[in-house]
Structures are given as C-alpha cells and as structure tokens.
C-alpha cells in the first residue's frame, strides 16, 4: 500500500501548559462526509480499511505516522465528496485531505493544509 509520512520531527507538540505532550495519543480515521468509510485505491485496487490509526507523542514531543493518500480514492459515477482523515490530538481536532506526494510532510505544513 502506498503511504505518505506525516511527522513533527524537531517541532515538539506541547501541552496547553507548555510542557512536552509526551504520551499523548493521536488518532487518524479515514472518513467520507461525516462518517468513517472504507475506500478503494484507484491505481492498485487495494481495499483501504477506515479503522483508526494510532500513534503517540514520544518523550521528545515528536510523532511519525504513515497514511494512505486520500487523493488515490476511487470515486464512482460523478461522486465529488472527497475522502479525508479526521485527526484527534488531545482536544485538538482537524480534517484534511492527504495528497499523494512521496516526500514526508511536517506537522506545521499538515495543520496549515499543505
């Protein structure tokens, strides 16, 4: 399965009180619209499961995770609703599309929608 790396190496995640967010769980779930949805990769025909993907912030405040690029999803018969990831990190939540680009993407770029 093709994946893309998202990480925050050298960009520590801090807690609301300014300490390292060590041990914080980060959850990524593949969604379509407002619900978790499985997908098919339009190039490899692989079945992509929407089960949550978990990672944890390490003792340096860093994490790294490999995710399937959502722009590889097969859309059928004029369907225009894109697949996205729902990410939950503590009280912070964001939805995003992950475009296929084989270079790693940094946390700050990801949060800002790159």
Helix coverage percent: under 10%
SSE ordering: EEEEEEEEEEH
Q: Mean pLDDT across all residues, rounded?
A: 88
State the name of the first-level CATH class. Answer: Mainly Beta
> What Rg, in angstroms, do the CA atoms define?
15 Å
Which key features would you list for this structure?
4% helix; 1 helix; 114 residues; Immunoglobulin-like; mainly beta; single chain
Tell me the layout of helices and strands:
Elements: E1 4-7, E2 25-32, E3 35-36, E4 39-40, E5 47-48, E6 53-56, E7 64-67, E8 83-89, E9 92-96, E10 105-106, H1 107-111
Parallel strand pairs: 1-10
Antiparallel strand pairs: 1-7, 2-3, 2-6, 2-8, 4-5, 8-9
Can you offer a commentary on this structure?
The protein has 114 residues and is mainly β. It has one domain: Immunoglobulin-like (Sandwich). The protein contains 1 helix and 10 strands. The strands form 3 sheets. Strands 2, 3, 6, 8 and 9 form a 5-stranded antiparallel sheet that branches. The protein has a 3-stranded mixed sheet with strand order 7-1-10. A two-stranded antiparallel ribbon has the order 4-5. The protein is elongated. The model has no long low-confidence stretch (mean pLDDT 88).
């Amino acid at each position: 399965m093709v994946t893309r790396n998202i990480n925050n190496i050298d960009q520590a995640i801090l807690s609301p009180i300014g300490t390292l967010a060590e041990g914080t769980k980060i959850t990524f779930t593949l969604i379509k619209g407002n619900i978790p949805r499985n997908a098919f990769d339009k190039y490899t025909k692989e079945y992509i499961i929407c089960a949550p993907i978990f990672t944890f912030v390490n003792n340096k405040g860093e994490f790294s995770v490999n995710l399937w690029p959502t722009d590889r999803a097969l859309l059928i018969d004029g369907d225009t609703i894109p697949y996205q990831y729902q990410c939950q990190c503590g009280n912070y939540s964001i939805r995003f599309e992950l475009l296929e680009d084989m270079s790693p993407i940094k946390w700050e770029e990801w949060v800002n929608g790159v």
